[in-house]
Design a protein that fits this description.
homodimer, alpha+beta, 2-methylcitrate dehydratase PrpD, 60s Ribosomal Protein L30, Chain: A, 2 domains, 4-stranded mixed beta sheet, globular
């Protein structure tokens, strides 16, 4: 079976008119969500350290480092923005596998600042990039992940190669090479989770996929069965491979339809509890000191992963369902700002989190929670969250995404710039020049 | 067992004074051999295509592309020179695993043009880089290779990271990170053999290892057990891992002692036959038309891999033991120039190769051959080559390496420049500035 060639042929022959309107709109949603995450992390020490190390070797200032005033060549911009995408672990998640935007959008936007790309072209290339990386990823999932590969890096590189290959108008042969050059750079170990290398993976995937397409466009050759050959990507990097996942129904459905966006800046398992706390606090306009006690009933995995009783830092706060519930009640939000060191140490929140209890119940789904508030006035309030906001069943609305974006960008770029970016993301498909987005995502030097 | 940390500690604490003189000299031999291979391939279409694709994104002209007039930033120079190293498949080979110089020397020489590095420092860093990549490679060999990994790429990246980390004077913690950042970029599939991606692997290894050390020096973190952890490099990329190979006897012996250099520009299995033909032709000062017939007795693998009767191109000539024997007799050499399209099509050589016969004999070692010439004057000449020149048992002499270097550089750089480079390589350990070597390996623009 010709796996690589079939996929290459689909990518090369796809036309923008083929992409259904809801998928085009999902691309705009993914773009807005991704951009907020990347800008929000743009001054994290992961990025500062990377720029300190690599800036002396950057080429011409071709592309924006989002949220910052530096400009770098497009290969470095794809890398750095790819890392920013994932530093907060707040980027999008496909229902079955990877974080799809982080390896693809940084490559596309960098390229769009180098050569003119219409907004619709960029949307089209993004949809196809996601299609390639998701199908290849799912074809080896979950065995590939269980072996120890960080699939967002290992499959993501195909997404960037396919997307940039589409912009470069590669022919079928060149697209096979691009996927092959991507395959042979595929890397990223799960052992790195918890270190800066975790977000390095989608960054390298973006940069390596971009490189793969550029090389293929100039006749740099690879194997022509890089995915399916005996010593090809799937067999070397996985114990399972289902080639039909890559090739069946191409163009009939799009993987981007299964994309999810996190509303809260912490692990998915805490989302249902946060969701219920925000709902109850908002509906009854509660203050923290009106609450005598909070009881959460959650899947046992929540206690396994996030039972930190007395978090000392913002990062530890992400692993404390108690802090998460307390901050959700008081601030009615749970964005990156609600997991700062200051927030975790606030006396009001410390006092409230000590009044939160959580019990495990295996009959409860990991994106489900039951929340019970006992108020000091004697009344009891209850909420059953069947599926957390942001799950596939309860997607974030466009307005939710805008609010998340504003929360992430706040403190990095002025409000007026955030508003302009929101507007540009929604109309990406109508822009004559997709580079308006990255250009407007730069921090202007005089504001620093 | 602390594998990564033990190795890191050794690298960090090693002093130049610890390196035995024969190992230092072997470093100079490896440098001379590597440089010839890289210059010899510097105008191959693999390099032309890569430069056409990537030149627009290069940073400042910090480092030489050997054999060419272009200069690029050190990350790109490490990549491009790393690719040149392996295009002709003529670079060095460790007795048990990888091609050690290709992933390490390009990174070191690029860095030496960016910041001052004494020759002895460069020799020291090279020896340690080879030590790291060889030990890590052997610890998973051959299972890792059999799965389908191109070990020169996958293990080579550790060599570049260790070597550059030594130049950067990383501390033990940073060296662990450098090895970790290297591990999580480790890539390269054997499926790519036969395409331009094969030589891409050591190039990316050089560039990624260099990047790893630069990032670690600025506090970019990774796992601290990247090699040995459950989801670390060895367990994810191999079914076998012997950690003691990495850690035992560090500093007591050096892997560079087991390095081999190919005298002839084709697969090792043809070397014994070529060797015998050159010896007989030289000893008896024969011309091709004095020979009525040639009989070669060789290991059956030789016929399996190189039985192309009528090669049409230089590349096909490398897979023809008949052409190899004929050209060895007539030219008394078998360098890159003896495997050109013109050479393969020369009527004199075509006529002679049709008078060459080869028979397989499983009792003969694959680096062994029996050669028998029947002359038109009725006499018979015989030679038994027990081990080919260039094998571990019969290493190339320093003079042989010089001759190989001149053959590779011929037509790319002037003879005077070749002579100067030979002189510099031999005295590398005494140079105040190691960058004299790459600077002298550039093609000056006015000569093009």
């Amino acid at each position: 079976m010709e796996v690589t060639r079939t996929l290459a042929r689909f990518i090369v022959s796809s036309r923008y008119e083929h992409i259904p309107q809801p998928i085009r709109h999902e691309a705009a949603r993914a773009l807005l969500n991704w951009l907020g995450c990347a800008i929000g992390a743009s001054h994290h020490e992961t990025i500062d350290n990377m720029l300190a190390a690599l800036k002396p070797f950057s080429g011409p200032p071709q592309a924006t480092i989002v949220g910052r005033s530096e400009r770098m060549d497009i290969l470095h911009a794809a890398l750095v923005n790819g890392v920013s995408s994932h530093v907060l672990d707040f980027d999008d998640t496909h229902a079955r596998t990877i974080h799809p935007s982080a390896p693809v959008l940084p490559a596309l936007l960098a390229y769009a600042e180098h050569k003119p790309v219409a907004g619709a072209e960029l949307v089209h290339a993004f949809v196809l990039g996601v299609e390639a990386e998701e199908r290849i990823g799912i074809s080896v999932f979950p065995e590939h992940y269980e072996v120890g590969w960080h699939i967002t890096g290992t499959a993501g590189v195909f997404g960037a190669a396919a997307a940039i290959g589409k912009l470069l108008k590669l022919n079928e042969q060149q697209m096979c090479w691009a996927l092959g050059i991507a395959a042979t750079q595929s890397a990223g170990l799960r052992e790195m989770f918890g270190s800066m290398c975790k977000s390095f993976h989608p960054g390298r995937a973006a940069q390596n996929g971009l490189t793969a397409a550029l090389l293929a466009s100039k006749g740099f050759t690879s194997s022509e069965q890089p995915i399916e050959a005996k010593r090809g990507w799937a067999n070397v990097l996985s114990t399972k491979f289902d080639p039909t996942v890559v090739t069946e129904g191409l163009g009939e459905r799009y993987e981007l339809a299964y994309n999810m966006y996190k509303p809260y800046a912490c692990g998915l398992v805490v989302h249902a509890a946060i969701d219920g706390c925000i709902q109850l606090s908002t509906e009854h306009d509660l203050k923290g000191d009106e609450i005598e006690g909070v009881e959460l009933t959650v899947n046992p995995i929540v206690l396994e992963l996030t039972a930190k009783r007395e978090p000392g830092t913002g990062l530890e706060g992400k692993f404390s369902v108690f802090h998460a519930a307390a901050v959700a009640i008081v601030k009615r939000m749970a964005g990156e700002a609600q997991f700062s060191d200051e927030m975790v140490r606030s006396p009001e929140l410390v006092a409230l989190r000590r009044r939160v209890e959580a019990v495990g119940d295996a009959s409860i789904h990991k994106l489900e929670a039951r929340i019970r508030f006992r108020l000091r006035n004697g009344s009891v309030l209850e909420k059953h969250v069947k599926r957390a906001l942001g799950s596939f069943e309860r997607p974030l609305s466009d307005q939710d995404l805008e609010a998340k974006f504003r929360g992430l960008v706040d403190g990095v770029l002025p409000d007026s710039q955030a508003a302009r970016l929101i507007e540009l993301c929604w109309k990406i498909a109508d822009l004559d020049d997709a580079a308006e987005i990255p250009r407007n995502a730069a921090k202007t030097a005089d504001r620093r």
